Amino acid sequence: MKRQLPYHGSCFVCGNENPHSIGLTWYVDEEGVLTSAFTLNEAQQGPPGHAHGGASAAILDEAMGLVVWAAGHKVAAVNLEINYHKPLPLNQPLILEARITETKKRKICSTGEIKLADGTVCVSGRGIYVVAPHLFNDVWLSETK
Predict the structure, then answer these.
(1) Range of the domain at 132
(2) Is the model's pLDDT at 144 over the cut of 70?
(3) Cα separation of 21 and 25, whole Å?
(4) 8, 48, 61, 113: which sits with the fewest CB atoms below 10 Å from its CB?
(5) Cβ-contact 8, 14 below 8 angstroms
(6) Cα dihedral angle (22, 25, 29, 31), rounded to 10 degrees?
(7) Angle at 88 between CA 110 and CA 117, to 5 degrees
(8) 135, 76 in Cβ contact below 8 A?
(9) What is the pLDDT of residues 96-138, one digit of tens each?
(10) Cα separation, 64 vs 140, whole angstroms
(11) How far apart are CA 127 and CA 21, in angstroms?
(12) Count of domains for the chain
């Protein structure tokens, strides 16, 4: 069973109060895997008919960090790596998955992929996060539980 995570305000990727948001809705399953099904449009265009690399990077940045937050860790990103395998088409269904791959005392790593409906990976990424509760308040974390 999947649970939907709350939208967070003015977020560029998933904010329900931002008229320019990409508008993703996030779900987390029992194993902690974060998913989203979405379609990009001309508002995210880079090369004709395809998403701007910055849009796909922003989506993976949000997803890889959010999967860590959804697991209960208050973290800040210290390194993001984005790999572009194929151009990401506009106006086609896309699937995103993100998961935690390593948890140490203060360091948590996650990965993410944006795929076509047939499972072809177009963009993948890896994030390294450090626990930094002093940077955040308790409001958002309590909403994700």
Answers:
(1) 3-144
(2) no
(3) 11
(4) 48
(5) yes
(6) 30
(7) 80
(8) yes
(9) 999 999 999 999 999 999 999 999 999 999 999 999 888 876 5
(10) 16
(11) 22
(12) 1
